[in-house]
From TrEMBL, chain A:
Domain Proliferating cell nuclear antigen PCNA C-terminal: 127-254
Keywords: DNA replication, DNA-binding, Nucleus
Family the entry assigns: Belongs to the PCNA family.
Record-linked InterPro entries: DNA_clamp_sf, Pr_cel_nuc_antig, Pr_cel_nuc_antig_C, Pr_cel_nuc_antig_CS, Pr_cel_nuc_antig_N
TM annotation in the entry: none
Keyword Signal belongs to the record: no
Descriptive protein name: DNA sliding clamp PCNA
Subcellular localization: Nucleus
One GO cellular component, as annotated: PCNA complex
Gene Ontology MF: a single term: DNA polymerase processivity factor activity
Automatic annotation (TrEMBL), chain B:
Keywords recorded for this protein, A-Z: DNA replication, Nucleus
Compositional bias annotation for Low complexity: 489-503
Transmembrane regions listed in the UniProt entry: none
A single GO BP: nucleotide-excision repair, DNA gap filling
The name this protein goes by in its record: DNA polymerase delta subunit 3
Lineage summary: Eukaryota, Viridiplantae, Streptophyta, Embryophyta, Tracheophyta
Bias kind Basic and acidic residues: ranges: 400-416, 433-443
One Gene Ontology cellular component annotation held by this UniProt entry: delta DNA polymerase complex
Amino acid sequence: MLELRLVQGSLLKKVLEAIRELVTDANFDCSGTGFSLQAMDSSHVALVALLLRAEGFEHYRCDRNLSMGMNLNNMAKMLRCAGNDDIITIKADDGSDTVTFMFESPKQDKIADFEMKLMDIDSEHLGIPDSEYQAIVRMPSAEFMRICKDLSSIGDTVVISVTKEGVKFSTSGEIGSANIVCRQNQTIDKPEEATIIEMQEPVSLTFALRYMNSFTKASSLSEQVTISLSSELPVVVEYKIAEMGYIRFYLAPKIEEDEEMKA
Amino acid sequence: MAGGAVDQSLLDLLPQIHALFSDPLRVISYKWLSRNFSISSNDAKRLLQEFVNKHGTNLQVIYSVSGWLKNNPQNYCIKLISGTKLEEGRQGFKDSCSVQIYSIQACIPKDTAVLWNPEFVQAEELFNQPFDDENCLRDNRFCGVLNSSVKRTSNGKHVSSLPPKPLNSAAVVAQSKPSVTPKEQFVTAQQQDLPVSSKQGAGNKSEKDNSTVLDKAGSAPVVKEQSIDAHASKSKAQNGKAMPSNGGSLANMWGRASAKPKPPSTTNSTAVASVAATADAQICAKEEADGDSSDDEQGVKYKRGSTNANNKKRRAVFDFSDDEEDDNIISIASPELPKQHTPDPVIGTAEDAEVNQKNLENNDDVPNNEKGSSMGMDSDFTAECKIKTVNTMNHSGITLKEKSSDPPINDKKQDSAAEPASTSPKRRKVLKTRIDERGREVTEVVWEGEASADDKAEKNVNTTAATASGATLPSKPKPAANTDKSKAPSKAAAGNKKPAKAGTKQGSIMSFFKKV
């Protein structure tokens, strides 16, 4: 038996909108500690990890660990039927091949049930080690989204370089090139607008803008985004979800090809 | 042939020639001489012959030998052969071959472009003269091949071109006929223009180059005439009257390729003219080839902006090629600069191993020069010119066309059989087309160390270009001409794209995280 009651239902709606473009089918894993998802995109270049901790739900009941395979687009369709202020309850019976989303209007005067079929998904669960990152950039998520959107109109890839001076996003394409530098900016009265760079050593990595743009769909979840960079490691783009969890996107960097390619 | 009786008035020019010759870098070709002193090309050849007879000791002579090859009797061949190899070269021909002086110079230039560059610059100057100025190019008075249907415009108006001279028909016939006749001289002279390019290398490698030249030469005569016409059209364009519509957006977008086709489209005569321009275009291409083509595009853009306003298509092309240097750009506008550029490369090249280059040039360069170089040059007008040439040839009904079209390959093969230059590991010029970071297709002529690989590359480029050209340049009638242009070929671009973009490889997340 599974029953998760999420007062801030819009969070779930936003999560789905954020990841459904990257991943079409995924298993939602429910355990006593929380509601999580890990999935790679079809090309195995990016990975999304979602965690909604049990404490974040008004009511959280999970009798046994459960993995529910869902088509995220179908799930998003159903969640779109929920109002932004609705309370969403996810319910599933043990051994059932369906999941039920219940939407309650704030005034409790309207209750909707949506039952969705589950699917069997062979998921490859990856172990993500905790790593020390050489550079961690925290910046307004809207700013990051804007940068990725702007750069993607110029080029296909973005080079993210972190130095003491700041973080530089640069790209080049057929029409030209672009460089955007964001300096440290700790605004005391508006912490959500701060840009904070914690750097152990300078890093410069290249990523496909297509994925970055997809990640920024999660910008509505959080005012701030945290970009963790380390050479030899995928970048982590993390959006905090209220007080209850996070959504993290991992993206493998583009690797410089050997001389043979250049020759 | 050249050694006929010379008028005393012509002999009076000998001191001037001597003075000109004192410039060690100067190549004095009969054509240049003809235009410079407004004498007929036959007279110019005789003059050169006289000069050689008098001062022949310390100068190098390049002869144009034309006739039917022994090993390929179906192709009328015109080769440029250096004086030292003249006898050797003549043996490849059947009994009656015509030997005429093509040019004299202090030394055989390593870069064959030097041979015709002065002529090109000269032609530019002549066509840049005010419209009302009559000069030898504008009135076509020395052109051996004339087409009555070709009309010449002056002052933006179409004027019936010079009355077709009997020579035209004769020249055409002559080409078709195996026997070399005096009339052919005109044809040969014209043909020589093309061969010259191939022959630059030919000076050293006379035989092979010659054969290749021959094929080209067949086409070349037509080209020359056309080029003249083209010049006329160019002048029109400069006036701003010529086909502004053509000069519009398409031309800009396609750059060189589009720009050229337009002039031909205006009128038949213009088309002919454009064809004629090929020789010049080739020269330009060569010059450009020496420079970086990648820069060209930028320059082209800028120039176009300016050129568009004026509707000067030709200039735009030049700009592209020269754009690397500001000076070059300027030079394009003003014909004089090209001269300066050309001599320098020649000197530098001359120092290089001549023999090796000769071989390379013969095999590779010849094709490159005519097709590849012009194409590679990015000069739109060359491509157009070529296309136009083909068309013009049809219009004029010149028989040469068939020969010219087929011969290049055959000749090459024959020549190569004699001298396997392509396989030899020598430096050669190679046409390379690639996509630069900006996604533009860039064709460059590069000296390659390894012959075989480069040759392959060249072939591929050419073939791809040829195939692609049809698709890319639908407006242009003939793919072959397009082939010359490196830009046009979409296929080549596609092929190149991959390597260009291959700089980075997308890693997989699986290589960082292991399955649980």
